[in-house]
Specification:
Two copies of one chain form a homodimer.
Chain A lengths: L6 H5 L15 E2 L11 H10 L13 H11 L6 E4 L1 H13 L5 E5 L5 H8 L3 E5 L18 E5 L11 H10 L4 E5 L20 E6 L12 E5 L1 H11 L9 H12 L1 H24 L2 E3 L6 E6 L4 H10 L2 E2 L1 E2 L9 E4 L3 H15 L1
Parallel strand pairs in A: 1-11, 3-4, 3-5, 5-6, 6-7
Antiparallel strand pairs in A: 2-8, 7-8, 9-10, 10-13, 12-13
Helix pairs in contact in A: 2-8, 3-8, 4-5, 4-7, 9-11
């Protein structure tokens, strides 16, 4: 640190993203990317946008992209906010809705960016302890907090909840903003988007990085009533007028329009997930029932960290969190059928 | 507003970017974009990056891009920070270096995002009043502030200062961070980058949006000593791990590597600027001597707002700020030779 650092930046523990190896030899099952390329229509739209016009600023409102998202989810355009990945959208939620010194609440085991955002924006947080089966104890969320963040499915567990649990929370705390992080919802969980018109305290956040195969282009979005969306717009326009570039806007628009490719890709990943889960159980793993594009697993005999190291040596990257209560678990992204066959084969060899 | 808005978001006056018309019929001289396409090598690099790999997250460190910038400016890679446009870089400076309640200082007439960032991050600001010729009164910056923001050239005036003025400021306030916003520096001003090793209180911010023809892809950067850069990295990694997408990283890398195209393009714009300035003076305009890719002008007989409206009717967009002291001025971006010929012709017709 040096004398020019702010107090916040001196104290904060930044989020550490999963490794992005620059040499391409690994089977990457560590950052929950989609193993399949985006729709051919997405690549075509990028090619069409590759022109002299990249000299011009993008549409600061990303109106066409918002329109495409609104159409897909059957909401109004002014109920959609778009940002540079759902990380930016979630980050903007803090200055938009929470005052420094306010408290928010989220599970103790969840997306590890939540406590970091809280620190960055001077917001306090109370965590609720997951049950021993990693389910979220919805009844334990405290009253009197300004916001509750619930991922559905949760990360890194992959466990999903029915929307009636979310709805119960919305009813119980009508003056608390409930932000449902649905980064992984498309892989088998139920979205809370249909509830936004019934509850003005609900904001749903999603991303193009997982089910829509566009992690490399950085697009996320939020859906909620227009008052909530306007708060996010105000923060964006006080931070960076143009957060999504011209090419990413067009690519995301094409991605959400190609419904057929989307459903097909999601289905393949879900099928691979179910098959892989069964095979891992056969190898002695405990596998949390997942509705995401990853599996959260623990082996009865071999420590997670050992498996992590050995798999890396074998050319497979998975994710291990050195976090209390989950030190002995691995998060394994669902790759292609071939990727997962190699994983199972390598694990089998380690079990001998 | 609604009851979920934070106090900050309720009070803030967001920045309003220049209009980006969706129909393409205007000659756009309103947002200081480059009138020329990026280097052919940039478009080629985008095409090469348009592959299935957009499913993968970008390099969160943007190491190759930082390396290319470092090489161009002859600094170390750890003296370079990159972000989603210089707007994001400037925004990150606030939580990185200033505590809520701290004060910063900048000119009263300058980039209108500075007061907005201050409000967003709870930082107070003291402005120094530009001299009547719009020059920055460097001796008037107050002591005891935590940061001073000086654009060079200043916007929207286009007036530049020699680096000895910046150096004097760095010496006078060794405990104040001086951020020099060099968004327009390549069009004829002197960069303060060579001073970063001599002064640990200097951070220089630049962008790919103007001289490097890439406004549409959102890349900006900061150069300063590694301690300052680390603070920005910590903020970025507490906000959004991947702020620059795969395609933008590659495009910016190609843009900074093609020095020949860069110098050639800048030279064309500077030549057009000088020619246009002379013609505007002949038409009765006062023209501030500009080292940027725009001219700040005022007419002796016709009000700026009238000219703005009339030019718009004639298919030419320029920028008019309804801001005290500059209500009667227009900021006109430098377009192609042809764009400026049309502008002069239309203005001549209005003068008859």
């Amino acid at each position: 640190m040096n004398r020019f650092w702010s107090k916040t930046v001196s104290d904060i523990k930044p989020y550490i993203p999963g490794e992005q190896p620059r040499e391409k030899k690994y089977i990457k099952l560590n950052t929950n990317e989609n193993p399949y390329p985006p729709s051919p229509k997405v690549l075509e739209s990028i090619r069409n946008e590759t022109s002299a016009d990249v000299r011009l600023y993008p549409d600061p409102d990303a109106a066409a992209l918002k329109g495409a998202i609104a159409l897909f989810y059957q909401v109004d355009c002014n109920e959609v906010f778009v940002g540079n990945g759902s990380d930016e959208v979630l980050a903007f939620c803090f200055p938009a809705f929470f005052n420094p010194g306010d408290a928010v609440s989220f599970p103790d085991i969840t997306y590890s960016f939540f406590p970091v955002y809280s620190q960055l924006f001077g917001v306090k947080y109370e965590t609720v302890r997951l049950n021993d089966d990693f389910s979220i104890p919805f009844d334990d969320f405290p009253s009197g907090v300004r916001g509750i963040l619930v991922p559905n499915p949760n990360a890194p567990t992959g466990l999903a909840v029915d929307t009636d649990k979310v709805e119960k929370l919305l009813k119980k705390f009508p003056d608390t903003l409930v932000i449902v992080d649905e980064a992984y919802v498309d892989f088998g969980a139920c979205s809370s988007v249909p509830l936004i018109n019934k509850y003005d305290n609900l904001l749903v956040v999603q991303t193009f990085s997982k089910s829509r195969c566009l992690a490399g282009l950085r697009v996320g979005f939020a859906i909620g009533n227009s008052g909530l969306i306007e708060a996010l717009e105000r923060v964006k326009n006080s931070f960076n007028s143009y957060t999504i570039d011209r090419i990413a806007q067009k690519a995301a628009e094409a991605a959400i329009e190609d419904k057929h490719y989307f459903y097909q890709t999601v289905k393949r990943i879900v099928n691979t997930r179910e098959k892989t889960a069964q095979e891992l159980e056969r190898l002695g793993f405990t596998v949390i029932p997942s509705k995401a594009n990853f599996l959260f697993v623990s082996h009865k005999d071999i420590a997670a960290e050992d498996l992590f190291v050995k798999l890396r040596q074998e050319g497979i990257l998975v994710r291990h969190f050195r976090t209390s209560r989950i030190e002995n678990w691995l998060r394994i992204s669902i790759g292609t059928e071939d990727d997962m066959a190699v994983l199972i084969e390598k694990l089998k060899a380690m079990m001998v």
